[in-house]
Amino acid sequence: MKDWIVIGAGYAGIAAASVLQKRGFETDLLEAHSLIGGCASYFKRKNFLFDVGATTFSGVLASQPLGRLFLELDIKPQLRKIDPGMIIKISGKQVMRYSKQESWLEEINFHFPGKNMDKFWKKIFRLDKIAWEFIEQNSKIPPRSISDFLSLLKLRNLNKIQMLPELFRSVLRELKSLGLESFEFKNFLDEQLLITTQSRADEAPMLTSALGLAYPAETYYPIGGMYKPAELMLAKFKEEKGDLFLKDRVISIIRKTGFYEVSTTKGNIYTAKGIISSLPIWNMAEITEGEIQKYFISKSKKNISAPGAFTQNFAIESNVDLPSLYYQVHSRNPIPYCEAGAFFVSFSHIEDREKAPEGFRTVTISTHTKTSEWLGLSKEIYQAKKEITAKFILAEFDFAFPELQAANKIYSLSGTPDTFEFYTHRKNGYVGGIPHSIHSNLLFMTPNVTPFKNLFLVGDTVFPGQGIPAVVLGALNVADRISG
Ligand SMILES: Cc1cc2nc3c(=O)[nH]c(=O)nc-3n(C[C@H](O)[C@H](O)[C@H](O)COP(=O)(O)OP(=O)(O)OC[C@H]3O[C@@H](n4cnc5c(N)ncnc54)[C@H](O)[C@@H]3O)c2cc1C
Q: Domain locations in the chain?
């Protein structure tokens, strides 16, 4: 019998498994798909490699979750810092998210002049800094016991208590108090916020928004694809004698006396003293029983749905050197069957030969959509909707990047919530975690610790939410609780 079974080899599961194995716990890692990475995985067509969802790396400084993880595992993924970390194309403007704060303040004041613009962004940067310090210094969050609470009562945490009201204060309220609530600026912020908090300014809490709005200052591009750092983590896991089982989907988790039994589609039965699941809470309700199932049903009822994603991948034949690899493009008209007013475009690095041959680049486009738009349709209607959305996005792409209009596009493929459900088994293709709002903020998220001994949760539907740095933080916190 192993010490731990980790379910799911996306970033959350791989982080948890590799750290536990490194710390001396015998661990099995079970993955349904034939490839690792989940929402940060890839697919290949001949000499081209396409990221399927996530494209930007962040949180890699030594004090941040991925930085800490890489140090502990002693790995050095090939990451290129991108500056401007993102360019926003909106109403004919190009807003550059420069890494240096002074340059960013100058840029935003140029495009959206406002008396208190500096004040707003300085608060964003201050909250972002305090939040990262708090996260770095405290792993027993959210507190689940008296000893957890006591561990937070440290002198160094006192000055961070000021952050708490910011979980209940919306970005819009802040904008109104500063006289910055113009339609144009709010619209600009709404689309930035949707990427990370999955909410708009009227609902998004200032604290989580600060982390999301500051993130484009620190974006990194992993050479070879988003899955590459995860592959290095996995190599360490195997080197330390951890076992990975691919194409082995978990279909039931049963609690026995003092251990857990896990059954899979291959008919295998795995046993361990404990389980760490990275599956979405809705999936957990389907593979558990008894009291454990009741727990996940109640969590699913509290969080009835989550967003979905529409993606468009293609390769282009072009040698044009662009000023950034990451763009948010505001569309001129609403995107058919999608919720956002913008889409995110990521290019492969011009020198990245692992993703495209010389003279070509791969492109990943993603935007938010309601999963209900895509599920349960006839094949014909589904196909027709997919084509309409793809055609619209590709035309907007051509309009936004006139320098690439002549470039030949190949392997153009669309992904919908149906695609995500098929490849990642995430119920209804819900991706990107549960939206953060002032009514349902970090404090109300499903915790990593469950009421059941040695059953822990990681992944983007539990604390602290979506994004690779967040799910890795959840995994590190669980590993710290286990290893004491
Ligand atoms: C379009 C899109 C763009 C994004 N962009 C970014 C970005 O640029 N930067 C960023 O940081 N984040 C981004 N995100 C969010 C980020 O990708 C996710 O929050 C994160 O990757 C989730 O990791 P996870 O391990 O929690 O879940 P997943 O990546 O979903 O991994 C779960 C794994 O579990 C496996 N699995 C499912 N069911 C079973 C089962 N029964 N048995 C065994 N295995 C199972 C799945 O196959 C999968 O591999 C994006 C997400 C999307 C969808």
A: 2-41+223-302+434-483, 106-217
Query: Which one, of 468, 470, 469, 479, lies nearest residue 39 by Cα?
Result: 468
* Ligand 1, atom 16, residue with closest C-alpha: 467
β-pairing, 79-82 with 219-222? antiparallel
Shortest-distance atom of ligand 1 to CA 39: 29
431 close to 39: Cβ distance less than 8 angstroms: yes
Interval 162-198: pLDDT, tens: 788 999 999 999 999 999 999 999 999 999 999 888 8
Kindly report the three-state secondary structure assignment for every residue of 362-377: EEEEEEEECHHHCCCC
Residue 11 Cα to ligand 1 midpoint, Å, equals 7
- 378 CA from centroid of ligand 1 (Å): 27
In this prediction, residues 263-277 reach a mean pLDDT of: 98
Minimal-distance CA residue to ligand 1 atom 34:
8
CATH assignment of 2-41+223-302+434-483?
3.50.50.60
Bigger pLDDT: 436 or 244? 244
What is the CB neighbour count within 10 angstroms for residue 181?
18
**pTM, to two decimals:** 0.96
pLDDT tens sequence across 317-331 = 998 999 999 999 999
Element (DSSP H or E) covering residue 327: strand 326-330
Q: How far apart are the first and last CA of the chain?
A: 21
As a whole number of angstroms, the distance between CA 446 and CA 63 comes to 25
